[in-house]
């Protein structure tokens, strides 16, 4: 598994504001949206393209166009929805699949309550978006759904990752031969006794959408 921590002053600036407990929900949503656009720029470096020629007003010009089948973007509900618009703005031809998952706050096990994905993902590049990679249980389960349906490679875009979560992902997919990349704005210190990322930003879903 490949991990990329995007090292850029604009990313750090926006992430710092996102972490701040005084940041309200509307601002949090705006910052998450801006951050995903910056992360997606790096995360899509390997997106498949084909060579094409277009006519400029002056002459033919060779260039690149997104290749088919177009990528699939998969937000993990609920918090991942806060990253969807930023992704589709950058990848307007992408298809969107949905996974609803919730982590049991006692056992820290992820439970799936909704799946709406294409049945056949053969040859597809997939981008999973979820702000938090904590124990890694949620993301690993989500990625298994995609590989089980034939996905070619999966890139996860997170705002924050914990070392424990990355280690779990590494262990889970080590011998599978599946290409996986994790792109994150920061690698934090650790998880606390409740499975929260430290220093983190708290509960991403609650900060985006309020407590339900
Ligand atoms: O790496 P893990 O330990 O599995 O935890 C990370 C998951 O927890 C959060 O979602 P949550 O379960 O709170 O659901 P929500 O998006 O509805 O708030 C987060 O958005 C991830 O999906
Ligand atoms: O720190 C954490 C861990 C899991 N989910 C969150 O929203 N935040
Ligand atoms: Mg939550």
UniProtKB/TrEMBL annotation:
Matching Gene3D superfamilies: 3.40.50.2020
UniProt-annotated binding residues for 5-phospho-alpha-D-ribose 1-diphosphate: 78, 103, 130-138, 203
Pathway note: Pyrimidine metabolism; UMP biosynthesis via salvage pathway; UMP from uracil: step 1/1
Transferase is among the record's keywords: yes
Cofactor: Mg(2+)
Catalytic activity: UMP + diphosphate = 5-phospho-alpha-D-ribose 1-diphosphate + uracil
Enzyme class name: transferase
UniProt keyword annotations, A-Z: Allosteric enzyme, Glycosyltransferase, GTP-binding, Magnesium, Nucleotide-binding, Transferase
Record text on activity regulation: Allosterically activated by GTP.
InterPro entries for the chain: PRTase-like, PRTase_dom, Upp_B, UPRT, UPRTase/APRTase
Any one GO MF annotation of this record: uracil phosphoribosyltransferase activity
Cofactor: binding comment: Binds 1 Mg(2+) ion per subunit. The magnesium is bound as Mg-PRPP.
Residue ranges of domain Phosphoribosyltransferase in the record: 5-210
Enzyme Commission number(s) of this protein: 2.4.2.9
Chain positions recorded as uracil binding sites: 197, 202-204
NCBIfam families from the UniProt entry: PRK00129.1, upp
Function: Catalyzes the conversion of uracil and 5-phospho-alpha-D-ribose 1-diphosphate (PRPP) to UMP and diphosphate.
Family statement: Belongs to the UPRTase family.
The protein's name in its UniProt record: Uracil phosphoribosyltransferase
Species whose genome carries this gene: Nonomuraea corallina
Lineage: Bacteria, Bacillati, Actinomycetota, Actinomycetes, Streptosporangiales
Gene: upp
């Amino acid at each position: 598994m490949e991990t990329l921590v995007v090292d850029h002053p604009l990313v750090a600036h926006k992430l710092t504001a996102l972490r701040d407990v005084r940041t309200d929900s509307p601002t949090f949503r705006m910052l998450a949206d801006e951050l995903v656009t910056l992360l997606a720029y790096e995360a899509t470096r390997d997106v498949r393209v084909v060579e094409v020629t277009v006519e400029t007003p002056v002459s033919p010009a060779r260039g690149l166009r997104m290749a088919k089948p177009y990528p699939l973007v998969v937000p993990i509900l609920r918090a991942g929805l806060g990253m969807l618009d930023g992704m589709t703005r950058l990848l307007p031809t992408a298809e969107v699949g949905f996974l609803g998952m919730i982590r049991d706050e006692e056992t820290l096990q992820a439970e799936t309550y909704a799946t709406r994905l294409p049945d056949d993902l053969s040859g597809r590049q997939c981008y999973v978006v979820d702000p938090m990679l904590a124990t890694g249980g949620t993301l690993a389960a989500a990625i298994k759904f995609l590989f089980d349906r034939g996905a070619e490679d999966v890139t996860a875009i997170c705002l924050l990752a914990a070392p424990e979560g990355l280690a779990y992902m590494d262990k889970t997919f080590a011998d599978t031969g599946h290409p996986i990349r994790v792109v994150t704005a920061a690698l934090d210190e650790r998880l606390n006794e409740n499975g929260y990322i430290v220093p983190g930003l708290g509960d991403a879903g609650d900060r985006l959408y309020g407590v339900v």
